[in-house]
Amino acid sequence: MPWYVYMVRCRDGSLYTGITNDLSRRVAAHSNGTGARYTRSRRPVTLVYSRRARDKSSALKTEYRLKQLSRSEKLALTTTSPARRKAARRRAS
């Protein structure tokens, strides 16, 4: 079963990072208020980044590294510039 690391942008502009094995279900849960406590009061949310992981362990490790990035580095992952995405992804790996 595939695992995903994802990032959603909340209504207030903040970013939330998590992992799941069902990306569409999890984003829907955040949007309808049954997801993480953090996103409940910041709806609606928009998926801005996702990356497939080999397994749950890899997803958790990648999530941790993403959470260590600065806001600007996280935003670089969500841009359409391949060079900026690649640089930020390298930092998170």
Describe this structure in words.
The protein has 93 residues and is α+β, with helices and mostly antiparallel strands. The protein has one domain: GIY-YIG endonuclease (3-Layer(aba) Sandwich). It is 49% helix and 23% strand. It has five helices and three strands, in the order ββααβααα. It has helices spanning 23-32, 37-40, 56-68, 71-78, 82-92; strands at 3-9, 15-20, 46-53. It has a three-stranded antiparallel beta sheet, with helices on both faces. Strand 1 (3-9) and strand 2 form a beta hairpin. Helix 4 packs across helix 5 (82-92). It is globular, with a radius of gyration of 13 Å.
Question: Which terms summarize this structure?
Answer:
GIY-YIG endonuclease, 93 residues, alpha+beta, 49% helix, 3 strands
Cross-sheet strand order for the largest sheet: 2-1-3
For this structure, the CATH topology is GIY-YIG endonuclease
Structural class: alpha+beta
Which residue ranges are poorly predicted, with pLDDT under 50 across at least 5 consecutive positions? none
Count of separate structural domains: 1
Note the total helix count: 5
The pLDDT mean sits at: 90
* Apparent shape: globular
Q: What Rg, in angstroms, do the CA atoms define?
A: 13 Å
Order of helices and strands: EEHHEHHH
Distance between the termini: 21 Å
Largest sheet: 3 strands, antiparallel
Number of DSSP E strands: 3
Please identify the top-level CATH class: Alpha Beta
